[in-house]
Design brief:
Rossmann fold, DNA-binding, 3 domains, LacI family gluconate utilization system Gnt-I transcriptional repressor (chains A, B), transcription cis-regulatory region binding (chains A, B), homodimer, 434 Repressor (Amino-terminal Domain), transcription regulation (chains A, B), DNA-binding (chains A, B), alpha/beta, Lambda_DNA-bd_dom_sf (chains A, B)
Chain lengths: 338, 338
DNA sequence: GATTTTTTTGGCAGCGCTGCCAATTTGTAG
DNA sequence: CTACAAATTGGCAGCGCTGCCAAAAAAATC
């Protein structure tokens, strides 16, 4: 479209091809290919001549061509809801370490928790013929599911276990997390419990935690007294704001937050307002962020295996493991805020 | 290598090709290609027939083949030091939003602050013939620089401005950040200033901040009294630990931290130890994390344009802008801790 | 030294798509 | 109805590499 003159200036694709290397080394193309991939047999002398030519010409193999010619791409596609929610960078971190070791490449796109966008991005990803597509959770549009099933590529659904997996699932039960959080608060004797969360229609895993949290409290005869759902993303500020609003409407002795960052916001709100924790108000979070342990009173929360989720998912793909659901569990941290 | 029997079970690459679509629609291959890319001319009737065939067969274009056949790949490669340091997810977030809008794909690898690994990963990235490679800062091995220059693909160096760019640079001056941090502390009257940081040989941008911080204090005749460098990554725990060690060795009235997370660790250490802030000890961070504003005394720090760095970098690539250095600046937040 | 076996090697047909060009169809003007 | 321009369309040669197969060279055996 624009600046074709500029384009000229900055594009000099140093197109050294395998054929040129072969020529320079005085060997056949397939020999170069074998040496470079260290696959098949060739003599040490040949190897040296090829490597010398590669070095001399500054040859960089073209994976695009290589992938097209062979099959299976060593690309792993991540279609994640967000990069602001620490969960996803953590998962990527775990996965990328394993993938890099095995010479796979990670590709990603961010759906912003929008299922429609997820479908579009998943389609775009499939066009790269990845070895696997990794998504968050089980809630996808029908189109997405159909497309993934038809694609023939491996699918890994991450961070959830409450639902039917398309292929592989790695994570833990969000329902169990919600349930155990509620049970913990009940054990501690709290009875007037509230909830502060971010948009649940979009973050369906948070939604599952909340709903099983509610069910557990209902069963105990002490349902959630009040809840405050904030439209924006999970954040410290929203946690603070949410708690402020909630306390303006209801008298509570404990609050469950959809995430640690929100819980921290709530915690700081209490500090600022002189609300003593946990005697006046208990706070319980979710995720087990490091910073939760560093505050004056360690945050009571559930620690999730985020990095491990990425690692395991990547390992299963690398090993071409059969369909399965891997439960990594979570750990309830009693902390000092509840 | 392993499980070829398993392999059979899970690979049914639904290989519907463009040729099959053409066949089914009763048109030529190039026509299908034109319709799908909405490029060139074709009649409305043809369009419908093609789309119907695409729908019916569940055709997913193969970008690998498309990229090989055309030129330029609409892939943007990120070679970043870490995903734990919030800086990089933020940059990716900004960039990926812009890239997705323009139908580019983000690919990434994590170097773990290791220049050797950076070189290897950059080489692997170039094999995908990306439209651009984005790296952190200017400090690369000679091999990396040579390879990037020879590659002919655009290069963007992020988050630094103190050095010579290979092509495009987007960020701000870390030296200026260090200098202004020091100047601020001096203006506030602090004279016995210490530093707590993470591994500086590896995070060269943090190294630059520290060195210009030191120079500024030296020039004022009040050099850094003591510093504590922790081997691990920047983290809340390390900040706490670093400050504890530092205070055991020196009497200080202010401490500069290499990052906000470390500064927060220091802040909480003070809270726990009853050290009053800022009267007994001032704390100054770097990055401007949200949580720094939520704690009882807002953290004094420098806010960096992380998301914007990613956005601008992506925009320049999408627009195929000429080589340039874009200074996004930073903002000193006075806060209440210094 | 001849023969068999094993190791190396090169040739070449695709992988699925795009870009170019020529051919065909359609539209328009004379 | 003819001539000419414009809009559509199809054919096909690659893009750079890998995989297969047969040929050549080297090593082992008798």
């Amino acid at each position: 479209m624009s600046g074709s003159k500029l384009t000229m200036e900055f594009k000099h694709q140093a197109t050294v091809t395998l054929a040129e290397v072969a020529e320079a080394a005085g060997v056949g193309e397939s020999t170069v290919s074998r040496v470079l991939r260290n696959h098949g047999s060739f003599s040490g002398k040949t190897r040296e001549r090829v490597m010398a030519a590669v070095e001399r010409l500054g040859y960089v193999p073209n994976r695009i061509a290589g992938t097209l010619a062979s099959t299976g791409s060593r690309l792993v596609a991540f279609v994640i809801p967000s990069l602001s929610n620490i969960v996803f960078p953590d998962v990527l971190r775990g996965a990328s370490a394993v993938l890099e070791e095995n010479r796979y490449q990670a590709v990603f796109s961010v759906t912003d928790y929008d299922p429609g966008k997820e479908e579009a991005l998943a389609a775009a990803m499939l066009a790269w013929r990845p070895a696997a597509v990794m998504l968050a959770g089980f809630e996808h549009t029908e189109g997405t599911a159909k497309m993934l099933r038809a694609s023939g590529c491996r699918v890994v659904e991450l961070l959830d276990l409450d639902g039917d997996a398309l292929d592989i699932a790695v994570g833990f039960s969000n329902r169990a997390a919600g349930r155990e959080s509620a049970a913990f608060l009940l054990r501690r004797g709290y009875r007037r419990i509230g909830y502060v969360g971010h948009d649940l229609n979009r973050d369906t895993r948070a939604g599952k935690r909340f709903s099983s949290f509610c069910e557990t409290l209902d069963a105990a005869g002490t349902p959630v007294v009040a809840h405050e759902i904030l439209a924006g993303p999970s954040s410290v500020d929203n946690g603070r704001l949410g708690l402020e609003r909630l306390l303006a409407r209801a008298t509570l002795d404990a609050v469950y937050f959809s995430n640690d960052d929100m819980a921290l916001g709530g915690y700081f709100h209490c500090l600022a307002q002189g609300i003593s924790i946990p005697s006046q108000l208990a706070i319980f979070g979710y995720n087990g962020l490091d910073i939760g342990r560093a505050i004056p009173q360690p945050l009571s929360t559930i620690r999730t295996p985020r990095v491990a989720t990425g690692e395991i998912a990547a390992q299963l793909i690398v090993a071409n493991a059969p369909p399965q659901a891997v439960d990594l569990g979570f750990e309830l941290i009693e902390g000092a805020t509840a």
